[in-house]
Design a protein that fits this description.
5 helices, five-stranded mixed sheet, alpha/beta, elongated, 5 strands, Double Stranded RNA Binding Domain
Length: 180
């Protein structure tokens, strides 16, 4: 038996993901978010898997991108239009009411390519006065609290994602085991 056959047979018999440890952190990664929300960043960074997450790591080949979008619903368009007419017609005495879907995306990007995406969606209704200062980025208190809850859901889902496990395994193969 020649050496190449022996090596191929040995590698074929090894279990997949042998070097992967459940608590192995992902490699150093940058963080970009559409909401300037320290709580979400801190919740994700507190997990051992994301211990090397860094907002100031510009140019990193691995990036966690957290974005959100507000998508109008069919009924939300009609309510929003009527609400805007009434709020504008009363010079802001009546509140502006918006009903829309809040969608939060957690993308892991490696070398400019999206490796995996986690998406969370919830319908929210926000009532605001046109004269008040909104500190919740148009999400309302309940919407902002829900966005913070998605960080916990994301971390739980990331622990079970095979693509992220493969990324950790690949980094461990080329660069050795990383320490948190």
């Amino acid at each position: 038996m020649n050496f190449h056959r022996f090596l191929a047979l040995t590698l074929a018999l090894l279990p997949v993901g042998l070097a992967h440890a459940d608590d192995a952190p992902l490699p150093a990664m940058g963080y970009v978010g559409s909401l300037q929300d320290e709580d979400n960043y801190d919740l994700v960074k507190a997990e051992p898997m994301f211990s090397k997450l860094n907002k100031d790591l510009v140019g990193s080949p691995v990036v966690l991108r957290v974005t959100h979008s507000l998508e109008p619903t069919g009924g939300g368009k009609a309510v929003g239009l009527a609400s805007a007419i009434f709020a504008g017609g009363t010079l802001g005495l009546l509140p502006l009411v918006l009903n829309q879907d809040l969608v939060v995306y957690y993308d892991i990007i490696v070398n400019g390519t999206v490796l995996t995406t986690f998406t969370y969606r919830r319908n929210i209704t926000v009532s605001t006065n046109i004269w008040s200062k909104d500190t919740t980025h148009g999400l309302g208190d309940t919407g902002l609290a829900w966005v913070k809850g998605t960080a916990r859901e994301f971390v739980t889902a990331a622990h079970h994602d095979q693509k992220l496990a493969d990324l950790v395994d690949e980094y461990q193969f080329y660069f050795g085991a990383t320490k948190p």
